[in-house]
Structure formats: structure tokens, C-alpha cells
Design goal:
2 copies of one chain form a homodimer.
Chain A (H helix, E strand, L loop, with lengths): L5 E7 L2 H11 L3 E3 L11 E6 L2 E7 H7 L4 E2 L4 E2 L2 E6 L2 H13 L3 E9 L2 E7 L5 E6 L6
Parallel strand pairs in A: 1-4, 7-10
Antiparallel strand pairs in A: 2-3, 3-4, 8-9, 9-10
GO molecular function (chains A, B): lyase activity
Pfam families (chains A, B): Glyoxalase (PF00903)
Protein name (chains A, B): Putative lactoylglutathione lyase
């Protein structure tokens, strides 16, 4: 079964902060109609043709999840992994995220699954960047 | 910027339980080499060409997230949304999830964003199914 597109919904504190971080900082592609605050509503980014990221203010997110509680900062239920073509591209992406204000959770290095690193977005959501470069040995 | 594929990593309690739920229950497409326990290692499903779901035993997941804590059941940081072509397809998908053992968190109904419903996987991770059907009015 193929399902397209899948939308990953995450709770956020502030739409403008998230918009700036993902669009200006990470160069993610926003989609949808812009609302009065200059930010698309809902705030979505197309990561590729098969997946979108939707960032929902915490109150609305809490409404969606019913009797569940919204995870507070520092509590992780998911990690989103992005491939990078080379080890150098991992370094460049983490540097870009850092300049955009991300917290670098683990700097780029050799891990059991490859060369990569992890950063947190303005709400503490974790992203990994992992090199697809093949190394001899 | 287009990034493919994005991998959504979630913590799980038991590889076999998750494998059965997603492969046999939801008919998701597993990818990767099968390990001695008969389950791919790592346990991944290709949802479409642009996104994979990776299910990681909680211990390993905790290692990945560093000084963060793994969300316990009932604490939600993310909701994954799947499109369905019609309202009837939403009903059918939720029924399939229910038969596979999912908890139905909110039965299918008309929501501000469309006709849909929400279920929880064996570890409490939330999925929404949302109809793409256009209604007059």
C-alpha cells in the first residue's frame, strides 16, 4: 500500500518563530495560503512529494490528540531523520541549523548507523541528519 | 530544497508486535534485511517513495535522543496523518486498524479539517486518517 502524502504534525509555541526557522533557516518549502500574520495557515512544509511537515500551535494540537497530553520540551516521542549525500553535507546542514538557532544535540560524528548529527528545532523537536556516503572498509 | 526519503523514527516496546500490526494489520510495506527474529533490522516500512517509518526499541531510541527522555504512553509529540481518497476509505482504514488491535481514539466524523478519525498503534503512537473527498457546500 502506498499512501501519499503523509503529514507529520508537531506542536509548536509560535507560528512565526517556526516559519522563520524552517523557511529562512533550513530552506524548507512552505505550502498553502498565507494568513493575516504572513504565515501559511495551516503552517506546512513540503519536504518532498511524499511527506509534509505540519506545525500546529500547542492548543490546537492538544485538541487533536484528545485525552492525551502534549509532550513538553525535552520529552521525545519521535525523531525525524534527513539524508545527506555526503559527510560534508551533514556538516553543512548542521551548521545551517545552528545558524538558524537550532540547539545542536549531538555534533556530527561517526555513529553505528553512519556519519550524522542531531539538532533540536525551536520547540525541541529532534532532527537527525545522516550521511548516505559509502565508506570503504 | 527536496529531501528524500525522510525517516520518521518512533520508539516501540516490541519489534514483533509492531511488525505484525503494521505489516499484517495495516498492510504497510516492510523494507530491509530480515534478522534472526524474522523481523527486519532496523524495522522500517516504506509508506511511499519519500517517507519511511522506522520503529526502534525504546532503549535504542533513548540512546539516539541523548539527554532527552522518551515520551511515555499517553504523551504525544507527534501525530501522523494519512490521506484517504474518500470518506468511506477513512471508515475502512479505521476498521482495519481496529481489527489489527489499534485503539480508536476518535471515531470517524466531520472535523474542522475534514472527515477523519484517529487511532493509536500498539505503543500509543497516534495516526489520523483524513478524507480528501470534496463535499459541496
Amino acid at each position: 500500500m502506498t499512501i501519499t502524502p503523509v503529514t507529520i504534525c508537531l506542536p509548536i509555541a509560535d507560528r512565526r518563530t517556526s516559519f522563520r526557522f524552517y523557511r529562512d533557516g533550513l530552506a524548507f518549502e512552505p505550502v498553502g495560503e498565507v494568513a493575516d500574520d504572513g504565515v501559511p495557515e495551516p503552517l506546512q512544509f513540503a519536504l518532498n512529494e511524499g511527506v509534509r511537515l505540519m506545525l500546529i500551535p500547542t492548543g490546537g494540537f492538544g485538541w487533536v490528540i484528545g485525552d492525551r497530553n502534549v509532550a513538553s520540551r525535552g520529552i521525545s516521542e519521535c525523531v525525524l531523520d534527513l539524508p545527506a549525500e555526503t559527510d560534508g553535507a551533514v556538516d553543512a546542514f548542521l551548521e545551517r541549523a545552528h545558524r538558524a538557532g537550532a540547539e545542536i544535540v549531538s555534533g556530527a560524528g561517526r555513529q553505528p548507523w553512519g556519519y550524522g548529527g542531531t539538532f533540536a528545532d525551536p520547540d525541541g523537536h529532534l532532527w537527525m541528519v545522516t550521511s548516505q556516503e559509502k565508506h570503504a572498509g
